[in-house]
Amino acid sequence: MKPSFVKYIYEYFEKLIERFGLKKQNEQGDGQSYSVEYSSDIFVVRLEKYRREFYATLYKIGHSDDEINLFNLLQYLNKDATPKAPEAKYFPEESNIDECYRKQLRYITDVVCENFTELNDFFREGNYESKVKDIKRFMMEKYPELYKRT
Amino acid sequence: MAVSLFNAGVQHQIITNQLLGNLTTQAGSASQGANLTVDIIDNETINSNAQFTSGGGGKKGGNTEGSGPRSKIKLFDGAPKLPPITSWYGKVWYFLNGRTEGRLRYDLEGNAIGLAYITGEPPPVDLKGGLSLFKGIYTSVRSIRNLFKAAKGVSVIGPRAIYRQFAKDIGANFLNVTDDAWTWAKNERFLAGVVKRGDDVVFAGKFNPAKLDPNSVLAREIKYLTERGYQWIDDFSRLIKK
Fold first, then answer.
1. Among A105, B94, B117, B235, which one is most buried in terms of CB atoms within 10 A?
2. Which residues in B173-185 are b (16+ Cβ under 10 Å) and which e?
3. Residues of chain B numbered 10-49 and touching chain A (CB < 8 Å)
4. Rg (chain B; Cα; Å)
């Protein structure tokens, strides 16, 4: 039996399927673990659950090792923009876990929908590897406390 | 390397193979017996710790749930062979201390039989006859010493959703609570155990800074570790305590 949050994923991503022609693929889960991908012709949106959180990452087709978090990417693309790019929301104050998942999933799909053109342009253009390197550097400089290395 | 997996599919197979390459110094051989220690917090199993001590009678792997047949991993087929030990004093030394060369353990004949013990524990010894008394004393002393000394091991945190199964497959520690029961307090206690033991922390799947949301629980876990002396190795495949 599929976990209850799966119905929210299907419901909210249906919007992306209808509007942008995404296709569902690689759904995996065993009760506690869950991940699913929605693919366009150019890039893939990967949704993965960890603890009580859903992480949305994206990658260009053929570059699954070079995933980029949705919100990191938007911050990178809009680093000088006003207003600021959206940040991830996990709704930890929501005591009802089902509702917590529903809000997260709705928020993620809304952000993907609102920024789909910008995301599509990023992945359509070339130099993906060098852009990913640049995003990694951007994140490491912005959050050095997370990336202390030996 | 043949790894039998459960139901996580081809991607899991790839990830497991990829990371097992990095784990040969920590994870231990799944074909070796491993004794388990289990920390219980609030009546839930938080952390199963596979200690590679002698005896070989424990369950394999670090999981605490029934999970069907375990995987068989042949890690040492290509290991170099050492000359056999023939002298009597060499044999005595072997019985007392085992035989380690590089990061592998060897038997008397010079065949690689497993990974070197991270804690420096000697391998299981099959002593017979008049040596059984010695064996009993030796085992007792070692058991008492282990009561006061937690073994360094391997722990798994994200980033993949399959981290639980991955941890089970390699016999590593992981936070084994359902998402419904998860709280940061439980998570923090698990991490405190990781820090206390000095476990290496590995990731189920390839990690890179572009995919980590700095506001996520995973980032909070990493921050907890880095604030307590952990650092990434260069390719971001693991965090180690310095």
1. A105
2. bbbbbebeebeee
3. 11-12
4. 19
Q: Which residue of B lies nearest to A146 if distances are taken between CA atoms?
A: B223
**How close does chain B come to A103, measured CA to CA in Å?**
15
Q: Which of A30, A69, A146 sits opposite B7 (nearest CB)?
A: A30
Q: Is A150 helix (H, G, I), strand (E, B) or coil?
A: coil
Q: How many CB atoms lie within 10 A of CB B28?
A: 29
Give the gap in angstroms from C-alpha B209 to the nearest C-alpha of chain A: 5
pTM (2 d.p.): 0.65
Please write down the HEC assignment for all residues of B108-170.
CCCCEEEECCCCCCCCCCCCCHHHHHHHHHHHHHHHHHHHCCCCCCEEEEEECCCHHHHHHHH
| Sequential DSSP letters for chain B | ------SSHHHHHHHHHHHHTT-TTTT--TTS--EEEEEEETTEEEEEEEE--TT--S-SSS--S--SSPP-----TTPPP-PPP-SHHHHHHHHHH--EETTEEE-TTS-EEEEPPTT-PPPP----GGGHHHHHHHHHHHHHHHHT-PPP-EEEEEESTTHHHHHHHHT-B-----TTT--HHHHHHHHHHHHHHT-EEEEES---TTT--TTSHHHHHHHHHHTTTEEE-TTSSEEEE-
Residue A15 CA, chain-centre distance (Å), reads 16
- Identify whether the C-beta of residue B139 lies closer than 8 Å to the C-beta of residue B96: no
Q: Which residues of A touch B230 (CB under 8 A)?
A: 148
Chain A residues lying within 8 Å of B165, measured CB to CB:
30, 33
Instruction: Please identify which residue in the block is written with the tokens 């949301």.
Output: B213
- Render each residue's pLDDT in chain B as its tens digit; 242 residues: 333 333 333 344 444 444 444 444 343 333 333 333 333 333 333 444 433 333 333 333 343 333 334 443 455 666 777 878 887 767 777 777 777 776 677 788 888 887 766 544 444 555 555 566 666 676 666 655 554 445 678 999 977 778 888 888 888 999 988 888 999 999 999 999 999 999 999 988 888 999 999 999 999 999 999 999 999 998 888 999 98
